[in-house]
Write a structure and sequence with these properties.
single chain; 412 residues; alpha+beta; Jelly Rolls; Hypothetical protein af1432; four-stranded antiparallel β-sheet; 10% strand
Length: 412
């Protein structure tokens, strides 16, 4: 049976989730009646999370004390079975009890980012007096406001291609001449045009033919994507390791976004790939500047926190300087807002949100983010026709193509 959204919206950590996600969660919930004396912490029971709907439950807390929770009270809005705020080691029914049950992994996934989201303000993090992390945050923030950072420049060849595409008198020959000034780049573009993704049934060998097959807009997006890797570099060996990780993540997200865009009418795959590559662009100048702050180099958690808080605003500033469209700027501003909901059809922001979450599957960071299907963005992709099983199947079946796209972006 489906549980009403109004009932779920009172529960922790579900409160505050968008209605579309609560409706999806409600389809996975069920109720269960228990008899007096039954143990909620029996092995089978802890596979799921329980909320008290009727009756009373006695909790055995880890400090040796007991606590009674009654249906209809505020504590009943928290899960009785871990994860939860009670620190309980056991729970026994005091009389007949009715529980609302939800899959444990679903609640675990929401809890992964629930506390963090409540520590944040609209500008990034909740500032606390005399805290080193907050002092560093304010230092970086004030430098951004004052224009104190040297922002990365758009690679010159991408600028030239952009101008040529915007010039109505340009021809395929004109674009090919610009690209051919960089032979490895020209070779990558030809290889891309010959790939199955771009209808490469008939093999071509000339850059001009590649431009003609791909089209001007695709050519611009692909050339920009191919040269962005050069921005992910710094003279600091410690920070360079972070840059490499950032580039690998961006490359993976770009490849998955490309695949997902093909399922979503109105979204262009090569533009989705570029959106995936630039979604963390604001982190680049922050990581470079961090080399001057030993406190950050010695504490990766602090560095992550400051970068995560500031990269959206700085990324938007970079893309405005590059004259990128508003859709790209919106992507860097919103791509980490997992539970963001709008009334629009699927956007590139939605696409990158979902692509990021898929990129974390099978990694340690998977425990720190929600499952893709718990985000409003997931339910917009492919016009809402995805489900967890089908989406995983799509990504798995496309893994060879994803790897090929990553290789193209790497320049291998």
């Amino acid at each position: 049976m489906s549980i009403p959204v109004s009932q779920l919206s009172r529960l922790i950590p579900l409160c505050g989730l968008p209605e579309i996600v609560l409706g999806y969660i409600g389809q996975q919930a069920w109720t269960e009646n228990l008899e007096p004396g039954e143990d909620l912490y029996a092995d089978a029971a802890t596979q799921d999370t329980g909320y008290l709907l009727k009756g009373r439950v006695s909790l055995q807390l880890t400090d040796g004390t007991h606590r009674v929770v009654e249906a209809g009270t505020t504590p009943a809005n928290s899960p009785l079975v871990a994860p939860g705020p009670f620190g309980a080691s056991g729970a026994t029914c005091d009389g007949k009890v009715k529980l609302l049950r939800l899959p444990r992994e679903l609640i675990d996934s929401i809890y992964a980012c629930w506390w963090t989201s409540r520590q944040q303000t609209g500008s990034g993090i909740e500032l606390k007096e005399d805290d080193l992390e907050d002092t560093l945050y304010m230092t970086f923030y004030q430098q951004i406001q004052a224009g104190g950072y040297e922002l990365p420049s758009m690679p010159e060849i991408a600028v030239k291609i952009g101008r040529a595409v915007d010039n109505p008198n340009s021809s395929s020959d004109d674009l090919a001449r610009i690209i051919s000034a960089d032979p490895p780049l020209a070779a990558r573009l030809v290889r891309t045009a010959n790939s199955p993704a771009f209808g490469g049934e008939k093999k071509i060998i000339h850059c001009r033919d590649a431009v003609t097959r791909l089209g001007y807009a695709n050519t611009r997006n692909l050339v920009t994507s191919f040269v962005l890797k050069n921005l992910f570099t710094t003279d600091s060996p410690l920070i360079q390791q972070r840059m490499k990780h950032l580039w690998r993540h961006s490359r993976r997200v770009a490849a998955i976004a490309y695949i997902l865009a093909r399922l979503s009418p109105g979204l262009v795959p090569d533009q989705a790939m570029l959106a995936g590559l630039i979604h963390d662009i604001g982190a680049i100048p922050l990581l470079i500047a961090a080399a001057d702050y030993p406190q950050l180099l010695d504490d990766t958690q602090k560095l992550d926190s400051v970068v995560d808080a500031l990269k959206p605003e700085l990324g938007a500033l970079i893309l405005r300087n590059w004259n990128f469209p508003q859709s790209a700027i919106d992507t860097v501003l919103h791509c980490d807002q997992w539970f963001r909901q709008t009334d629009q059809p699927a956007t590139y922001s939605d696409l990158v949100i979902v692509a990021q979450l898929f990129s974390h599957i099978g990694t340690q960071s998977m425990q720190q983010v929600p499952s893709p299907d718990l985000t409003p963005a997931f339910h917009k992709i492919a016009q809402g026709k995805l489900n967890p099983m089908s989406s995983i199947s799509i990504i798995n079946e496309a893994e060879k193509e994803i790897s090929a796209i990553e290789e193209l972006l790497e320049g291998g």
